[in-house]
């Protein structure tokens, strides 16, 4: 055990995990050690006979073990980012052990009684606001976790929690397997007509890596509409790719239904009418009615927009002899309309978006202009995979803030999608600064070729770095209130705001340079993109709303102690979308039930609505940036201090009012998406 590198804080800068020393066999022993420490700390709180205090109750709950958060942060990032067979084999056991510990803590009536007493006395204890907030959060967690149930109910809930954790792990692993299996091999190069050279080269490299001696392997991203569909001229190939995407997953349909049923049983035990009602109780929405109102304001106008776009696309497709438009035609002809009506040429744009330049001269440069940050790459600091790169981040005075790791390329061991994780949490109490990682799934370029990224991938780079900024710039005392530890339905707010810098006139010219000539992107191409800003918003909003409505419907099933899985998940999916007014023959959900990883394995259960919910604040913040007085740097500093720095130490809607002087208004969002 003394040789296990996870048992002690790393001696590398900012406690960056020493990935050269960490092996798969280290994780479970380190976890067990952390669990033992945590159980001892919890036991001391439970047996406490003195008058409870913040120091004797809340602090041990906040920091029961230094090993436990270290090993969990590192393990879950690695199993999602580089899930080798060795790591996948222990993921289930790892998750079960953590679930058992959570049951022991949050279903402990002795500990809950002490937390509740502090909660009732919190305003008279002479605490700072962050400590009061921490007490409130712990009281809420215990209450919603079932600490107030009787002994028999707590035992039932503990079993349910374990069953849910096991089912979620199985679903997440199966989705990744299905995603890898869905990749389409093209053997005739003529079938790739229209696909940019960079995509062909990446597909050829992917085929070789998969053991194919010839051909081109079109690997998939997690969402439904694959990027290649925008380019491929061969309609049969488009159909093949689209159907492989939407039809992936066989076991996961039943898995999702099982998870939804288990969650409905949990909601019943806790006295809620549905799991959705339970899920929003600790979010900014607070009540299901608030989420329903968001759907009510957006579904009908979004569908109307999508229908108008469908009519225009059908007209253009008819000119090619297509009498009946199909879903696999949408992206291809949508891009043709952008080119025809708005002069947008995605293929012409791509050479101006080289990954490293977008990152360092775009994403990092924006952070410098807006927040005064600077970055230095640290090739001496090794990540968990050879493709991972590391930068040290400094504030405007040149003081180190933490580390940023970038893991940008897709590989078979990585889960689909894009996300941010903490490897080390910021905490003034513990003296730690943030180490954060961004994961994307960009097709890796062929050997010796530049990594060119699409317009959408540029947007994703800016988006995910917004999460990274939230983690890096926080100055919280307590780890559980630092960075992105905010209410789930508002966590996307800072990341969505960060997307605004992608096309900002002070940022774009600095990074959008041709990778061969160094010439800036022609102004007319960018003006075309801006003119076409609302084209496709109908389809984009509907495909998002369909996924959000699916997630919501699965978790609005009536709570019942004997809830059973839906017998026909596919029929349920269609019925849920039809009832919501979102059934559209040409626009599929961004994620179907069989690969809705956010909801059934990714922590967004009954919460996928939060992207739109947070966009209300995002769109209004962009409006504030445009209207408020002061320089870009001054406004960036205000956003930093009022939003990013506070983490979860106070409610974000309250912080937004402090920033802008008013509550958030939905109108900028409706105007942005063409729904006003």
Protein model, in words:
Strands 3-4-5-7-6 form a 5-stranded mixed sheet. It is built from 26 helices and 7 strands. With 676 residues, the protein is an alpha+beta fold. Helix 1 runs antiparallel to helix 2 (54-62) and helix 4 runs antiparallel to helix 7. The protein has 4 domains: 5-106 and 108-148, Glutathione S-transferase Yfyf (Class Pi), Chain A, domain 2 (Up-down Bundle); 182-246, no CATH class; 251-344 and 535-608, Orthogonal Bundle (Neurolysin, domain 3); 352-531, Neurolysin, domain 3, CATH 1.10.1370.40. A hairpin with a 5-residue loop joins strand 4 and strand 5 (400-409).
**What does the average pLDDT come to?**
96
- CATH level-1 class of the largest domain: Mainly Alpha
The CATH architecture of the largest domain can be given as Orthogonal Bundle
> Would you count the extended β strands for me?
7
Number of helical stretches of at least 4 residues: 26
The fraction of residues in strands falls at: 5-15%
Write down the domain tally.
Answer: 4
Low-confidence stretches: none
The gyration radius over C-alpha positions equals: 25 Å
Largest sheet: 5 strands, mixed
Which topology of the largest domain does CATH recognise? Neurolysin, domain 3
Placed side by side, the strands forming the largest sheet appear as: 3-4-5-7-6
What is the 3D shape?
A: globular
Helix content: 40-55%
Helix/strand structural class: alpha+beta
Distance between the first and last residues' Cα: 62 Å
Keywords:
7 strands; 4 domains; two-stranded antiparallel sheet; Neurolysin, domain 3; Glutathione S-transferase Yfyf (Class Pi), Chain A, domain 2; 54% helix; 676 residues; 6% strand; 26 helices; 5-stranded mixed beta sheet; alpha+beta
